[in-house]
Amino acid sequence: MFEVGGAINLNSDLRISNGNVTIAGQTAPFPGIMLKGHGVRITASNILMQHIAIRVGDDGRSSDGSWDNKDALQITGSGSSNIVIDHCSWSWGIDENSSTWASNAHDITFSNCLIGEALVNSAHSEGSHSKGLLIGGSSNNPKRVAIIGNLFAHNVDRNPQLKGGTSTVIANNVMYNCGDSYSISNMTRNYVSEKTLATYQGNVFVDGPQSASGAYAIKAESNLASGSAFYADDNVNLSRPSYLIKDSAGCRVSSPPLVISDYTPLASGQVADSVLTYAGSRPAQRDDVDARIVSEVYSGTGSRKNHSSGLWPSYSSTSRDFDQYIPSSPNGDSDGDGYTNLEEVLHQMAMQVEGR
């Protein structure tokens, strides 16, 4: 929990190596918490992170290779599980904005996040880059990953990308102004000995000024392992309807290979309004970056970014005493709903910064 709000300048990645941790950014007073300059790396299990903005940037950095793995958020712990990243904002990553690159990781959720403006011609030694969200690893790739209710905007590709051997539900996301791989999934390449399972429901794809005209929204590569399957229902490519699905693997199926219990996706016609209203670290109190990106989606404008210089939002330093919000019996459950009294306070604070 936080008693302060403002920008936190990181000298290195913030590492979460111990499990059973909740990072409740909604407890920070306005303008909230922005981590600046480096990212967050998770190698543990049972992690909940909410309402945090992470903006990496390339200020003062050269393309000497030392920044090639610099994401805003990385999940890299072998066997890491039960991780929920909810209502966060990531921008200006040098590699991806976010990734899971971990063997045997499972039960990971990315929900209601704003994933935007991964840098293009920046400090990556390969040159042009700009990647949104990568789900993968070098072996035994992540299983039971959920990507729900997020806004992907102004990233060239990996919006998201699923490596072979993963199992993922991708539902109710909005993808805007993607580039060469304007695809919700490019299920492919260097780990193909294990089947890939994916369920796509109610996703919305919208071209922007730099979108590639011939790219498909949902794409299954021909080199997927035997037994791979993907299901697609109620997804729409608003700008180019005929470029919705390309199934080079011949593995599209008629029922979902992976489902989330007690979750019902919104109809695609409701998705854009929901995501543009509620995605990001503090939807009811958006900083200048998130507000600009959402406005650009509405207006069909904006562009991908090469550098972060001149783009940083202003964050004032604020503080308040959190003790006033702690209930007399924080670990009790006064209403008997399964959540502690302190968790109820966190839920109420989350609803306030989300505008619900």
Set down the secondary structure blueprint.
Layout: E1 4-9, E2 14-16, E3 21-24, E4 33-36, E5 40-42, E6 47-50, E7 53-55, E8 73-75, E9 81-86, E10 89-91, E11 96-101, E12 106-111, E13 114-116, E14 131-136, E15 143-148, E16 151-153, E17 161-162, E18 167-171, E19 174-176, E20 185-187, E21 197-201, E22 204-206, E23 218-220, E24 229-233, E25 236-237, E26 245-247, H1 268-278, H2 288-299, E27 318-319, H3 341-354
Parallel strand pairs: 1-4, 2-5, 3-6, 4-7, 5-8, 6-9, 7-10, 8-11, 9-12, 10-13, 11-14, 12-15, 13-16, 14-17, 15-18, 16-19, 18-21, 19-22, 20-23, 21-24, 22-25, 23-26
Antiparallel strand pairs: 1-27
Organism: Syntrophotalea acetylenivorans
InterPro entries: Pectin_lyas_fold, Pectin_lyase_fold/virulence, Polysaccharide_Lyase_1
GO molecular function, one term: metal ion binding
Question: What are the main properties of this structure?
Answer:
356 residues, ten-stranded mixed sheet, 27 strands, metal ion binding, Pectin_lyas_fold, mainly beta, Pectin_lyase_fold/virulence, globular, Pectate Lyase C-like, glycoprotein
